[in-house]
């Protein structure tokens, strides 16, 4: 019986409330729940030695992901990311036993919460959410997700994005593998290319990044089909706040941007805060985790068609631009072009960048509008650079018109246009 794996104290999942897709920052449905008597075999651990900070998602003392950084606990600092050791190195009875239910077509979030009870029971006691989301099968830096190596590499998706005074709202968008690539099977990936009514399973880590616990072949299939990966994401508690009567603030906790009030909790805030200390790792654990490497990470010979899939999905900066751009509807673009809505140049650039990356047919129209208006001159270089990626007659005519009227007052723009015609 699977229940024997959990010992005497039976785990219990207590749903607290459902979260509507349109009322959270995850962009998907979710269920907040309390896990009672969690086993703590799957958890995030944090620590630092004399040279660096380290965070690992750990299963039975096997690191599944590694986040490095001199200032790891700085929430707005980019981290160095490297591969873990591999979920296959664990005594993985739970996930292997769950394969049958994990590979059934998706029914509902409530049904998934029941089916994943054994897996969720591996987490520490505490508050979580399970969300039905679509994640991009890249690392947030434009790379196919399974190409991560053992050498720590800076990753912008490891924290919120900053640009010109704006901070993005971080949340689950990209995936990191927990299985070494030597386990990849092309035939399995091909099966899922035509069967996408399934869900992968991931755990939200930090920034925009999630660790993919199950569904690596589903993720490859999604990448090849240029579609997001349908994923059930486990979201842990990421912070808490105490009540302040003087300021009228009630206490509660935060699950990846979603606030859960103290009145909804089944345990005290102090007990929740005390539980965080259990995630501390010792210096010897840090050394052990850093020493565990599977050589196939970063050295596997991926086929070219798989490697190039990273180009199909937005980078973390583009995802932030889409957030900052706001409404991208045709009606809003019409209002901007007809001067019914006046946007500052920063917002105009984010809208143009978002439309470009989303391959919207409205991109050229807005970009030409920006490129012909002197009040947008501060973003001309960026927007002209985007336009220059498109090879068609409309762009050629736009650039020819620029050259005809060019008084050589902006050599950076002239160079972009000249270079465009040099490579025709």
Number of helices: 15
Helix content: 25-40%
**Molecular shape:** globular
Helices and strands: which structural class? alpha+beta
Rounded radius of gyration (Å): 24 Å
Number of domains: 2
Annotation, overall tally of beta strands: 17
Strand order of the largest sheet: 1-2-7-14-12-13-11
State which percent range the strand residues make up: 15-25%
Given as residue ranges, the uncertain stretches (5+ residues, pLDDT < 50) are 1-7
Biggest beta-sheet profile = 7 strands, mixed
- Overall average pLDDT: 90
End-to-end gap: 67 Å
Layout: helices, strands, pairs:
Layout: E1 12-19, E2 29-39, E3 42-48, E4 53-59, E5 62-69, E6 79-83, H1 93-102, H2 109-115, H3 117-120, E7 124-135, E8 153-155, E9 162-163, E10 166-167, E11 174-177, H4 186-193, E12 200-206, E13 209-214, H5 216-224, E14 229-236, E15 239-241, E16 252-255, E17 258-261, H6 269-276, H7 283-291, H8 304-307, H9 316-325, H10 330-337, H11 345-357, H12 363-371, H13 380-387, H14 393-405, H15 411-422
Parallel strand pairs: 11-13, 12-14
Antiparallel strand pairs: 1-2, 2-7, 3-4, 4-5, 5-6, 6-8, 7-14, 9-10, 12-13, 15-16, 16-17
Helix pairs in contact: 4-5, 9-11, 11-12, 12-13, 13-15
């Amino acid at each position: 019986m699977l229940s024997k794996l959990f010992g005497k104290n039976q785990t219990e999942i207590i749903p607290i409330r459902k979260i509507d897709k349109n009322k959270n920052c995850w962009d998907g449905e979710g269920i907040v729940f309390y896990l009672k008597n969690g086993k703590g075999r799957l958890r995030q651990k944090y620590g630092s030695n004399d040279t660096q900070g380290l965070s690992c998602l750990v299963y039975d003392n096997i690191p599944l992901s590694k986040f490095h950084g001199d200032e790891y606990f700085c929430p707005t600092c980019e981290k160095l990311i490297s591969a873990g050791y591999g979920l296959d190195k664990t005594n993985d009875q739970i996930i292997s036993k769950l394969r049958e239910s994990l590979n059934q077509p998706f029914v509902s979030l409530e049904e998934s919460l029941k089916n994943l009870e054994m897996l969720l029971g591996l987490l520490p006691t505490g508050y979580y959410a399970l969300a039905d989301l679509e994640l991009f099968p890249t690392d947030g830096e434009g790379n196919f997700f399974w190409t991560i190596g053992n050498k720590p590499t800076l990753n912008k998706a490891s924290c919120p994005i900053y640009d010109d005074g704006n901070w993005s709202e971080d949340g689950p968008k990209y995936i990191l593998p927990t299985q070494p690539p030597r386990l990849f099977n092309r035939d399995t990936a091909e099966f899922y290319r035509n069967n996408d009514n399934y869900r992968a399973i991931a755990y939200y880590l930090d920034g925009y990044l999630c660790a993919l616990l199950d569904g690596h072949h589903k993720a490859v299939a999604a990448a090849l089909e240029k579609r997001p990966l349908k994923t059930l994401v486990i979201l842990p508690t990421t912070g808490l706040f105490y009540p302040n009567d003087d300021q009228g603030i009630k206490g509660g906790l935060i699950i990846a941007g979603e606030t859960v009030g103290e009145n909804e909790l089944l345990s005290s805030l102090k007990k929740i805060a005390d539980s965080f200390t259990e995630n501390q790792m010792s210096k010897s654990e840090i050394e052990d985790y850093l020493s565990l490497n599977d050589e196939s990470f970063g050295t596997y010979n991926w086929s070219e068609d798989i490697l190039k899939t990273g180009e199909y999905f937005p980078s973390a900066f583009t995802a932030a631009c889409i957030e900052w751009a706001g409404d991208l509807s045709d009606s809003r673009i019409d209002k901007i072009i007809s001067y019914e809505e006046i946007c500052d140049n920063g917002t105009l650039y984010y809208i143009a960048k978002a439309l470009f990356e989303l391959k919207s047919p409205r991109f050229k129209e807005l970009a030409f509008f920006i490129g012909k208006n002197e009040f947008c001159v501060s973003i001309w270089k960026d927007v002209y650079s985007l336009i220059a990626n498109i090879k068609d007659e409309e762009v050629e005519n736009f650039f020819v018109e620029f050259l005809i009227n060019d008084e050589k007052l902006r050599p950076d723009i002239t160079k972009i246009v000249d270079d465009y015609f040099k490579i025709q």
